[in-house]
Amino acid sequence: MGFFSKIAKGLTRSRESVVKEVKGAFGKGKLTEQVIENIEEKLLAADISMEVAARIMEDVRVQAKGEEIDSRQLLTWMAESTRNLMPETPVWVAKAKPHVILMIGVNGAGKTTTIGKLAHHYKTQGMSVMVAAGDTFRAGAIAQLEKWAQRVEVDIIKHQEGADAASVAFDSYAAAKARGMDILIIDTAGRLHNKGHLMEELRKMVRVLRKHDEALPHECLLVVDGNTGQNAIQQGQGFNAIVKLDGLVVTKLDGTAKGGAIIPLCREFGIPVCWVGVGEDLDDLIRFNREEYVQGLFLKEEVELIPDPTALPEGKTASDYYLGV
Ligand SMILES: Nc1nc2c(ncn2[C@@H]2O[C@H](COP(=O)(O)OP(=O)(O)OP(=O)(O)O)[C@@H](O)[C@H]2O)c(=O)[nH]1
Ligand SMILES: [Mg+2]
């Protein structure tokens, strides 16, 4: 399954509520204040913030110039406006050897799972990968990462449960450097952004890593559960105060109705979404692409309209549409 159908599938629930309003209640006509208000409401339900929803609808209002439009046009403008509100995801490049990625986030966000998927991704690209069991806090966390490391056949650096997480980070860098690894991905314990002592531990991890090299970590990724919606903004603020965030990983976009939360999140922090998790398997990680995201969020309602792939309109192939695969 390509990026497109995966993200489109992941965003089905978010898309449905918005598209239903636009297609069902609006259909075709002039954009009245009432119509705009109703659509804004649906955008809020998909966890697009008030500020962002208002910006999108203002853009649409300007484009429409008071003339009659249909729902398809309206959705296309909404998608365009939304895309322009999001920072573009950069092409990934290794910053050094090893390129060090630190994964942070609240409990259960999907950090360890994402590390497994990322390790797999880089390995299939021909790079050597090491993972570090920096979650020494939660019982079973080291074994969980070890399982992933075995599954994708990458090296792991670990200490005992309860050991100092900062020394795991420090040692893993030394080991990755000595072994000539391309990528080092460091796991951390889940922590609430308002838990002072755990945030202090994170600060220490970064401080200690920087004894090796001031540029470390090269990538600090905040992992947020796509279902968390706008609470993720508060989480992000807490982490941002401790360590500079480089990008977001939004997990569990499969099956959430809150897929819109991505937009206020990356606007708030001015950082791009780098990866999106759409399931629990190794391949269920996608490099984010804002164009395809907004299409998945606003435009792929065609799935109901084209139930039979053998009856596609002329000039179209099945891959032009999301068919619910
Ligand atoms: N459906 C779905 N489940 C996911 C995704 N990513 C992670 N999960 C599941 O979410 C749960 C928590 O994932 P973990 O990777 O353990 O999360 P974590 O952030 O490391 O958790 P802690 O270490 O406890 O803080 C697991 O059951 C994962 O299988 C995703 O993209 N989609
Ligand atoms: Mg974990």
N→C terminal distance: 8 Å
Mean pLDDT: 86
Radius of gyration: 21 Å
Spans of at least 5 consecutive residues with low confidence? 301-313, 316-325
Overall 3D shape: elongated
Please state roughly what percent of the residues sit in beta strands, choosing from under 5%, 5-15%, 15-25%, 25-35%, 35-45% or over 45%: 5-15%
Main sheet strand line-up: 5-4-6-3-7-8-9-10
Can you count the beta strands?
A: 10
What bound compounds does this protein have?
A: guanosine-5'-triphosphate, magnesium ion
Sheet with most strands: 8 strands, mixed
Q: Please, how many helices?
A: 13
Portion in helices: 40-55%
Query: How does the helix and strand content classify structurally?
Result: alpha/beta
* Helix-strand sequence: HHEHHEHEHEHEHEHEHEHEEHH
